[in-house]
Specification:
The chain is mainly alpha-helical. Helix 5 runs antiparallel to helix 6 and helix 5 runs antiparallel to helix 14. It is globular and about 60 Å long.
Amino acid sequence: MAGSNRIYSIDIIRGFNLILMLFVNDLFVEGVPAWLGHRPANFDGMGLADWVFPGFMFMVGMSIPYAIGNRMIKGESNISLIKHIMIRTLSLLAIGVLMSNSRNVGGEYTGFSKNIWSLITYTGVFLIWNDYRKNQDNKWLVPSLRILGVLMIIPMVYLFRSSDNGTFSFRAWGILGTIGWGYLVAALVCLATRENMLKTAVALVIFLGLNILSKLHLLDFLRPVRPVLGPIINGNAPFIVLSGLFSTMILRKYSAKGIEKPLIPLIIFGVVSLAGGIFLHQWFIISKIQGTPSWALLCNGITLLLFALLYFIIDMKKKAKWASFMRPAGANSLTVYLVPDMFYYIIWQFSLPLLFYKDASLPPLAVVAGSVAWALIMGAALPVLLERINFRLKL
């Protein structure tokens, strides 16, 4: 398995995707154009927001061969790699569950506001998963901060009550948890196949098949284990992450023959994905919330064609300066994804007038412009500041 030689456009498109994610997540005001937001569960179609999440999962898959390959170059054993994959998966599941529950805190039952609960919990997450620079002077400080993070989260889980007075849900995977399950499958496939494209393609087809069978209700007999293994049984998230993994395999195989060689195979993969999504649309609606195979294939096709365009401009034509502002977000995606939530909770808790553009009486264009500004500040300016103070989450 090869190691480095990372493609610059991977970080650029991941940064672009993350900035878009911050943008669409900020559009929680009535009256903004419907095509920018999420479409309802039974709506046959998709808006911009319905592509952002699968686009991010796709990019997670694209990064896997580089991460595993670099570790193998350093001489890590299979046991060590599996341990790393499991720790990373459990970390994503844990943060995903905490984030998902934070959306539903009932202050009247918990004893304090949703904002306070979330601020304490997120601070605990940052203390546990921060990428500390260890040295002889702080060898005791780092584990102490991580223990403090755990001690902050445990009482929050115990005290949690939802808006209907329910207790903490350990099966509410949320966005990061869903990514975690997809990452687990794709990383283990990558490790097992050693980047064998045929074997990886077989895994890709298997999980697309699971997605189809699940939506046809032919896997309902697995309902007892769905609360835990639902994302894997549904096949949707693993299929999207595996598609990203397979795309990087195309990149690495063909770029060895010339920087321009991967472009046509990537475009073909993208067109085939779009065609597959259109074909399956005869039987399945296009729905992110339902996680239909037609939606997954269309999103894969869009991501692939967008990536092919950026690869052509940035890596082949060497025109990257115009997009350099997006790279820090792509290189620190988990940090940039989580930190803006902290700002929201601080703003809401202290009623700070920073979200003044979220006013339904304003023209929709003004609301959208405000969300664009928020996304650029949080996704482009903030990562630069966080890098300077060495704040970075690492799983």
